[in-house]
Amino acid sequence: MKFGVLQFPGSCDEVDALHAAGKVGEAQLIWHGDRDLKGADAIVVPGGFSYGDYLRAGAIARFSPAMESVIEFAHEGGLVLGICNGFQVLCEARLLPGALLANANLRFTSRLLELDVVRTDTAFTRACAPDSAQAGRLMLRIPAKHAWGRYYADAETLAAIEGAGQVVLRYAPGQNFNGSLHDIAGVRNEHGNVFGLMPHPEHAVEELTGGSCDGLRIFESMRSAVEATALA
Amino acid sequence: MTGTHDPTLPSLEDALALGLTRAEYELVCEKQGGRAPNQIELAMYSLLWSEHCAYKHSRKLLRTLPTEGEHVVMGPGENAGAVDVGGGLVCAFKVESHNHPSAVEPFQGAATGVGGILRDIFAVGARPIAVLDSLRFGESSSPRSRYLLDGAVAGIGHYGNSIGVPTVGGELYFEAPYEHNCLVNVMALGLAARGRLVRSAASGPGNALVLFGAATGRDGIGGASVLASAELGEQGEGEQDKRPTVQVGDPFEEKKLMECSLELLDRGLLVALQDLGAAGLTSSAGEMASKGGVGLDLDVAKVPLREPDMEPFEVMVSESQERMLCVVEPANVEAVIELCQKWEVGGAAIGEVTAGGQLRVLRDGELVGEMPVAALVDECPLYDLDPRKPEEPIYPPPPAAAELSYASPPRELLLALLSCANLCSRRPLFEQYDSIVQSRTVRGPEQADAAVLVLADASALAVSIDCNGRRVAADPYTGTVAAVLECAANLACVGAEPLGTTNNLNFANPEKPHVAWQMTESVRGLGDACRALRAPIVGGNVSLYNEGATGPIYPTPVIGMVGRLPDARRAGRLGFAFPGDEIALVGPLRHSLAASELAKLLGEPLPDGLPEIDLEAVGAAQLAVREAVRAGALSSAHDVAEGGVAVALAECCLIGGLGAQVELPEGLWEPAPLPLPPDPASRDAVPPLLTAALFGEGSGSFLVSGDAAAVRALGERVAVLSIGRVGDDVLSIVEGGALAGTMLTLTLDELADAYASLAELFS
Q1: Interface residue of B252, B260, B494, B573 to substitute, partner A, most A CBs within 10 Å
Q2: Which residue is closest to B433 within chain A, CA to CA?
Q3: Inter-chain residue contact A108 with B441, CB threshold 8 Å
């Protein structure tokens, strides 16, 4: 299982993502100027401020040569995970529905959050197990840190993605500080192979530095999905 | 100087306008071989001979500080100092100020403060791993304070968050003397492999000088001389005019510049590296040449410009951000430029190292300025201070909080302290910062007294920044000793031993005798405390003329300290952790209300002096706590600081989410000799002994929790007093002995409500 982690000028969390992915498989960086995805089985578009987030978060990065290959990879069914700025890039690239707007409080906000897992039959959450301590509730504790994380889609799109079961993670009650519609924290595409979320699973892979290991479930789910495809 | 003046050359009046004195101007003429300097030369001298660049009022004092020790790898004089942290790694760190720019334009002032200190760190070849900030504003009731706070915090976040370096700690105080002259000090830490640090000395005549990063524009011209080395005027007046001297930061440009610099060093392509900060190319080129004992030829026509028609002097003094200067062997120039292209930063060879000791400025090959490097960089006259202790108090008493006195019920005093702007939770502030990027943060804000960052070998760095300016104002010597001890105490609470210290000496106008006295006493305290702790000074900064129309700031020697602990998993925590744990006070209990937070709240004038500190006893307590934390014996450790034992207890409860039942034994308190306030009539009541016991402040004591055996074991090494147990959801403090009675009972919710008051300032 090989993860490829994109690196743009202005990426900040690519090394963290590399480290997290490296805990469940092989992982290597892919430079934004390269079209070669180096045989990756899954792609991570990491957090940060690609190209300074000038113009609009993610708006420039979607045109990079590496992203052209990722778009092609996604259209062929490859697994793509977008974290924070990566989520914004995937929305800009129209691989995911909706857009991310400025937080309701208009400030960069960093907080460890509780997220409800809406469904576990996805390539990105299949390794999430009910938490016995939470009376069977499916909950992940993962930090978020962003200024532009308010998930928005028009009413029609929102109804469509809810109807198609594309919402994968929601902010638990009281946790939606950015004002996302329908408390949406993470959403996948119709086909189910592309997933974006504002919280940072790569920052919750060790108790020592994350205060939680719940983020690992996302990467383990991806490995499990890739392995299942390989067997099929 | 000759009697006749060439009218094409700048005059004495021009020199005075640029901040030089008449005597300094005459000395410049002498250094220039008896001729008046031309415009570009005068601009360069005026910057490098400014207080900001030449340290002309502080250099003699700084020479008294301890700078050597077993862990020191690089001491003062380089872009940042560095200590050995084991595992083949060194940690480079430094604190710097951006006070006047932030007072004029808080967002960009603070943002470029972060950018500047980060460049200092990667200029020595270390990858920045953490930022801390130390902020001072006027009283929180002042609209100007709120404007500056909001702007500065947003600026720090904007730059630090965007560049991928976590902001892991800091401190914030509101005091009236900072009303017109806020302080924004930023500290950064970086890591490098031992032996891979790079110095800034230019060498090798014939080697190329390459400028890389952002293009040079007209921003920040005169920042170091006009803005940083003079007092600020009346609020509003003149500040608008100074706004163009503040630079504008671009964190994306810096992020690319940082990655590019580190990769250039990694590939061994550089001979020397230096960032461009205050005084731009003038200072960077001058310092590189001076340190290497060489000369430089520099052609301004080769400098990539943002605006095409810039004059040579403008190119030389521009403080455009996000630029670096390096020395490269001729054979490597092409590779350096190629790597700049990879990172999409500009890069151009703009000159070369020469054998003579002259700094020559050319335009398209034509000589437009020439100065001896030594004269420019090292021969600015140094001034002796004329310290005199003021006979009258310098600072007016703080405004008193209504309806409170020493006789108020302790519960009301505690709630007032917990909700006051200096002590309430910093959460609304630190939530605006990314504290976790780079995946090293083991203890971040409000998790422990010091930030803790894990290293590859599972050991960890700890870092703290601190200074209580009010206490330094009351007693510059003892207050400074206390600030150093506070940093070391914070390190002890996470189990770390100090390795080295950095400092930013923020003072008012050094030409005034009372300020000179504050500086002299403070630096003496700094030296004594660092020697006692074996935590030498590896670098720092001096910021003078912090003075507005309403008077001087509190003397504020901000201390940053870096330490090490062997096992990151055993890093100490601040909050109570387990119901049933015993709570104990550790170390000398010599608390007094002199210059305390409670005294401020009640409008007390500053006392003339603080109780003497027993450095040996404090050091012993810190050692004992540090070792108990390292051994994993304690559940929590917190130093008793502002607000005394009562506030420390409340903080341990709030952070841990657990209550505490505490009994303070009768006769416990050895009242420290309390210097009387200048005007005894101003006190309506002598504080009751118990009020002093609850809210008094002093160096050296800790509040710890753990199982009974661990607390007993600690008691075999140092004075330990058991005072209660962790549990339930109330904090109750009762008085023991004959006077037994409840002093206060507060639920966690009541404490939390009071503690959350900072949010109002950001609304």
Answers
A1: B252
A2: A110
A3: no
Contacts 24+ apart (CB under 8 A), B514-518: B514/B388, B514/B389, B514/B390, B514/B394, B514/B552, B515/B547, B515/B552, B515/B555, B516/B385, B516/B386, B516/B387, B516/B388, B517/B387, B517/B388, B517/B389, B517/B390, B517/B476, B518/B472, B518/B473, B518/B476, B518/B555
C-alpha B568: how far from chain center: 25
- How many angstroms separate the CA atoms of B732 and B534, rounded? 39
Question: CB distance from B722 to chain A under 8 Å?
Answer: no
* Domain coverage including residue A62: 2-231
Residue type for position A105: N
Determine the Cα–Cα distance for residues B562 and B464; give it in Å rounded to an integer: 7
Burial class (CB in 10 A: 0-12, 13-18, 19+), B309: exposed
Q: Does residue B98 carry a catalytic annotation?
A: yes
* Percent composition of chain A: helix, strand, coil (DSSP 3-state, to 5): 30, 25, 40
Q: Which of B630, B481, B620, B473 is nearest to B546 (CA)?
A: B473
In whole angstroms, give the CA distance from residue B500 to residue B63.
17
Contact A18, A29 (CB under 8 A): yes
| Contact between residue B572 and residue B369 where contact means Cβ atoms under 8 Å apart | no
Query: Which residue in B253, B343, B435 is closest to A110 by CB distance?
Result: B435
CATH number at residue A37: 3.40.50.880
- For the domain made up of B573-763, the CATH class stated in words is alpha beta
pTM: 0.94
pLDDT at B237: 46
If phi over 0 gives left and psi between -120 and 50 gives alpha, with beta otherwise, what is residue B481?
alpha
Closest CB to A49 among B162, B439, B568: B162
The torsion of the CA quartet B435, B436, B438, B442, rounded to 10 degrees, works out to: 100
d(CA A195, CA A126): 13
Cβ contacts of A3 within 8 Å, gap of 6 or more? A18, A21, A22, A25, A26, A27, A28, A40, A41, A42, A43, A44, A219, A222
Output the furthest CA–CA distance in chain A (Å, rounded): 48
Give residue-wise pLDDT tens across range B225-267.
555 556 665 544 455 555 566 778 899 999 999 999 999 999 9
What's the start-to-end Cα distance of chain B, in Å? Answer: 60
pLDDT, mean of residues A117-144: 85
Measured CA to CA, the distance from residue B365 to residue B205 in angstroms comes to: 18
User: Which H/E stretch holds residue A196?
Assistant: strand A194-197
Between residues A183 and B233, which one has the greater pLDDT?
A: A183
Grouping H, G, I as helix, E, B as strand and the rest as coil, residue B656 is helix
CB contacts, 8 Å: B434 with chain A: 12, 108, 110, 145
In 3-state terms, what secondary structure has residue B273? strand
DSSP B411-448: HHHHHHHHHSTTTS--HHHHTTS---TTS-EEE-TTTS
Name the domain count of chain A.
1
Give yes or no for a contact between B501 and B535, defined as CB atoms under 8 angstroms apart: yes
**Pair B162, A52: CB distance under 8 Å:** yes
Q: What is the pLDDT, as a whole number, of residue A131?
A: 64
Active site residue A202: yes
Domain boundaries, chain B: 12-53, 573-763
pLDDT less than 70: residues of chain B: 1-5, 222-245, 666-687, 737-740
Residue range B87-139, pLDDT digits in tens:
999 999 999 999 988 998 999 999 999 999 999 999 999 999 999 999 999 99
| Complex-level ipTM | 0.95
CA B610 to chain centre: 23
| Residue A53 or B437, more confident | B437
Tens digit of each residue's pLDDT (9 = 90 or more) over A196-227: 999 999 999 999 998 899 999 999 999 999 99
pLDDT of residue B231: 67
